[in-house]
Amino acid sequence: MLLKARRGATLATIATVTGMVATLGAGTSSAAGMKPGADSWAKIKSGTQTVRSGIAGVDRSGDRGCYDNNTYNAIVTWKLGKVTKSSIRVKSIDIRHSNGRAIHVGNYALVDDNSRRWNKVNPGNVAKGAHHRKYKINKTLKVKSHKAYLIAKTQISYRQREDSTCQQPVYLYFYLKQKR
Predict the structure, then answer these.
(1) Three-state secondary-structure class, residue 166
(2) Residue 67, SS3?
(3) Which of 27, 32, 55, 143 is the most exposed place for a label (fewest CB within 10 A)?
(4) CB environment 32-62: b (16+ within 10 A), e (fewer)
(5) Is residue 4 part of a domain?
(6) Which CATH number belongs to the domain containing residue 114 in this structure?
(7) Counted domains in the chain
């Protein structure tokens, strides 16, 4: 992925570049076998708390054959209930999408140590720009061995004469772990 400075960069492009730096920098998951994404840390406590993730995203605007608005990133705000050493109660999530052009969201999935705990199939299209998607979850995640995580599977919309490699699905991972 090649990053270029351009005049008139869109807010989504700037945010994507910022997100890539966050994704590739110190706040990322680097454990073997885990996909790149953004980490979120919840305090162990019995009351409610709100935790905001870092930015995870992709910028294909510098890739060969891709147009300059082929960008996408997201941030997740987690509304949590009781957090223990072995579980996290997720009440709801707010996913903020920011994209250079329309995207199609194929799936959101919330996974813990044992299984997929919540799944939203084909939530649909998200228009160009910044948009929020809010979902009530109300699930307790078992997270003794690994981090729990939310996967967002998306695809950036097609543009004429753009290389087919620019249309590959994008998987963003938002990890959630307890602070000990």
Answers:
(1) helix
(2) coil
(3) 32
(4) eeeeebbbbebeeeeeeeebebbbbbbbbbe
(5) no
(6) 2.60.40
(7) 1
SS3 call for 127: coil
**Token duo for residue 58:** 């992709």
Residues contacting 25, CB < 8 A, separation 6+: none
In a domain, 166, yes or no: yes
pLDDT, tens digit (0-9, with 9 covering 90-100), for 5-42: 333 333 333 343 333 333 333 333 333 333 468 999 99
Instruction: Give me the residues paired with residue 17 across strands.
Output: none
Distance CA 174, CA 53 (A): 7
Answer whether residue 20 is part of any domain: yes
**What Cα–Cα distance (Å) separates residue 59 from each residue in 25, 69, 159?**
16, 8, 15
pTM, full prediction: 0.77
